[in-house]
Amino acid sequence: MKWLAWFIPLALVLGIGYWFFFMRAMPVPVVEARVGEATSAVTGTIEVLATRDQTLKTETGGRVAEIPFDLGEPVEEGTLLVRFDASRFENEREQMRVRLNAAREAAEWPLPNELDLKSLEDREAALRLRVERGAAPRSELDRLHQEMDKLRLYRDRERLQQRESIALMELQLEALERRIGEAELRSPFAGRVVELFAQTGDLLHGNADVVRVVSDEWFLDMTLSEEDFAGVALGQPVVARLASFGGREIRGKVDHISTVVDAERKTRSLMVSLDEIPEGMALGQTGEAYLVRDQRSGNVVIPRRALLGRQVYVLENGQVRIRSVEPGYLSLNRAEILSGLEPGDRVIVDRQSDLREGDRVRPITIQSN
After folding, report:
1. Cα diameter, the chain
2. Disulfide-capable partner of 320 in 16, 210, 290, 359 (CB 3.0 to 4.6 Å)?
3. Is 290 exposed, middle or buried (0-12, 13-18, 19+ CB in 10 A)?
4. Spatial strand order in the sheet of 203-204
């Protein structure tokens, strides 16, 4: 039993030492560095937009008479969306048509002075013959010619006034037709109505918003910092996550690159066409996306959060070592390391700010994806 006298204290000392050196050590998550596929990607913000988005306005205003559609209902190009009360203009149009038809018909009739002129022309032939025979003085023929010139002048003036009156009435009729046409708002393209700013019976003034129509073709407007645009090209794949969709991914590709840079914000935008529009996605939603510029394999790959600038915290013999590394391709979740790490090295992926060189830690191995 003498051995118990020294074994029990020794066990206590060893237990306390184990707890002090291992159990008390800070737990940190570590991942094993491995050779894998690296992706050169940049991240940016996104917003869901429609390829065509237009808010229709009133031209001259009026009272809303009819709204023959339901909000969210699909519409074709030319579909009537809103009709304003145009009864006053329609009445004026009918009155103008009657006046115009009467004026055109009257223009076909001979003028009173044209009849007088015809009578003088018949008289002029007989008088000329008498003058030539010396039976009448030349002065009488000259007076007749003056009277005929006056009648011709009156005739031409009245015909000009008739043409002017008809032209003015035609212009007034065109204006009324245009006003009546403006009383109907029709969809400029196929899509659906997403907003309505008036109700039947409302009296609207000119240039007031009435209805908003968007096309069924949507895209992502992606904004990148200017320095991240190097290597961006059409057709490159994009993976996006909307804030209200949780972790659900939306995929597409670069379809258009803006030629304009926002000099104030130092950003540039591009258009991402979607492989499909997921159910529940709405215009105006925002989120984050990353654009894949290039991919390659053969080098060490670690989680992106394990890389701090050009340094990596590595676990060696239970102690923290800080290594300088040369990063390669960077993506949203992964970092390629060209030098400074070897496959199998265990890198710390969290709590680096709490660690110092030489600290003893308790590793918690996690799987890298």
Report:
1. 181
2. 359
3. buried
4. 184-186, 80-84, 62-66, 203-204
Task: Name every residue whose Cβ is closer than 8 Å to that of residue 327 and which is 6 or more positions away in sequence.
Answer: 307, 310, 335, 336, 337, 338
The span from the first CA to the last CA of the chain, in angstroms, equals 56
Burial label, 86 (beta-carbon count in 10 A; 0-12, 13-18, 19+): buried
- Report the helix count and the strand count for the chain, using DSSP H and E: 4, 22
Dihedral of the alpha carbons of 69, 72, 76, 80, in degrees to the nearest 10: 30
165 Cβ partners below 8 Å, 6+ apart?
103
Among 280, 274, 291, CA closest to 331: 291
What amino acid is encoded at 52 in this protein? Answer: R
Report DSSP state, residue 188: S
Read off the pLDDT of residues 179-222 as tens digits, 9 standing for 90 and up. 888 888 999 999 999 999 999 999 988 889 999 999 999 999 99
Which of the four pLDDT bands, split at 50, 70 and 90, describes residue 19?
Answer: very low
Instruction: Tokens for 345, please give them.
Output: 């090295």
